[in-house]
Amino acid sequence: MTAILASLSLGASYAQATGGPPPGHDVLEQRGVVRSGSRPIAAAEVTLLRAGDHAGAGATPLARTRSDAHGRFNLAYRVPRDPDAVLYLTADTGPSRTPGRHRHGHRVRPVRLVAMLGQGKPPGKVVLNERTTVAAGFAMAQFTSGGEVAGRKPGLQNAAAISQNLADITDGAVARTLATAPNGDQTSTLRAFNTLADIVSGCTAGQTCDPLFHLARRPGATAPRETFQSVADIARAPGNHVAELFALAAGRDTYQPLLAEAPDAWTLALRYVGNGHELDGPGNVAFDAEGTAWIGNNYVYNADPLQSVCGSRLLSRLTPSGHDVPGSPYQGGGLYGVGYGITLDPKGHVWAGNFGFQGRGCPNDASRLYRSVSEFTPDGRPLSPPSGWRKGDILQPQGVVSDRKGTIWVANCGGRSVTRIPHGNPDRARNIAPGGNSMIKPFSVAVDTRGRAWVTGNGSNDVTLLSPQGTPLRTVTGGGIKRPMGIASDSLGNVWVSNGGAVVAPCEGTTPAMVAEAIKDIVTRDVDASVTMIRPDGSTPAKPFVNDGLFLPWGIAVDGDDNVWVANFGGHRLANLCGARTSACPPGLHTGDPISPAATGYTSDGLERNTGIQIDPSGNVWLANNWRNIPVQTNPGGHEMVVFVGLAAPVRTPLLGTPRHL
């Protein structure tokens, strides 16, 4: 009891001495234990910190103590006034690495174990071990520098919550989300996570710190000096020294199950399913200002691919950690078989394109249902009528985007046109059809820095540029544009096009069954699969960008550093390319060079056939498992969103035009 009271006294006095909230606020006790596997770590310097509220702000210590002979500790601290404050614990141990001191006054030690407490009242007891450290390092990868955590809302807060999808900080075990279906033993992510924890355990044991720090070093960056920053650096450069890092786990089995061989890259991909019976053929995703994910579905949910299904009438909305937002999914407003088109406007209203997807055998007449878009309020209330907004000759809509003024652009895949809805006013909707041989099967739209709209023509192998008022300005061909699908803009005025090669958009006479037939025998990268950059003046490089991370490329997104991400309809892989702002790329890379492994991309057995891709405010990359690997046309839909944790530069949401770093 004497030791506990002394610890509480130290914690409270330290909080006051280091700029904690003024007296009179609630004082909380935080208990915990520091372990490596089941082995307690004594005399670890345990610090409770408040994360900084913007990049470079640094973290503020609230209390500090040492673990006892059993690894246990107690801290008392005054609760921060700010309800958005993110708290986390660090435990530093091992011999001092340098004669200098850390910015908070204690010496730098090679082992730093971390547990993210997040917002609100933390749990009564916390375990810090290698699992909680890997969870924190990956989730907070985009918010960690020099071993400290700082970042802007809501990305920082959401990332802290996501870390608890990987590790359970109350007992140091694998978190339920990662441990159970559709994750668990259904994908390799659990084994990769445990293997990373075992890699860290080698340093905790005092055996592999130097090689870990050397191998974790990101190209062009200084080497990390402790384990937490090492994990974050691995997460941000997961294709770096993969096999050598895997070798550091040899002979270790503290955490199981483990990988049997080195992966292509050290990524952690989680699958989210909401309530478990709503996602069927998710086509794309859009994020609101708080980072919640709005998702349209092709089909009515049914786990049996042999059961004929009609078009979904649900609009899904997931929290950043993959759970249904209370009250969702939403219905009404004319929703039916939403495809690739979903966006948010400046008011936070959600717009979805009703493509009319349905499985073979559905008795509905899709031609009566694929002529509208639906609009919802930020809380999921439909604003469009039961038949949807129909003005502007909407026909089989696919891509739907909003610009910064709230004008909605709709690509009419079955109508060789675009519908422009000025300022989101459906009564002013106007159809724009350039005519001739351009804009055939328009699939996706992107708005550039000047407010101009760029539209892919999947059937005409071109991209059409429209003025902010909708006037056709030019048609871009060449540069490898072949069966273009997705398109995205960057902050420098360029747009990026994913060339599907063999992918024919399922509209204007082409059925989903025809698409399935065309791709069923493709087992290697199609020769025309590539990415094209179009400059602001409409010119392109002579050749497109090609690597084996591109396999039936479909969706495309640009992150907060202007690097490019591509979802693939085949190959179970995610591609990452160096963008036009090469200063944000690893040293030595040029625009269009692969950042992900050139031979494979970032692979995951959690991926199926992916369409939509977007980056959230925490730097997580979301992909839609749109179709199953073998898409039986009665119900070909996949059932998950797949989220690569901490992989990209965060994006401010909602995405209106070009991406902005959070």
Automatic annotation (TrEMBL):
It comes from Streptomyces pluripotens. Gene3D superfamilies: TolB, C-terminal domain. SUPFAM superfamilies: NHL repeat. This is SMP-30/Gluconolactonase/LRE-like region domain-containing protein. The keyword tRNA-binding does not apply. Coiled coil: none annotated. It comes from the Bacteria. It holds the Pfam family NHL. Residues 1-17 form the signal peptide. GO terms for molecular function: zinc ion binding. Keywords: Repeat, Signal. InterPro entries: 6-blade_b-propeller_TolB-like, NHL_repeat, TRIM-NHL_E3_ligases.
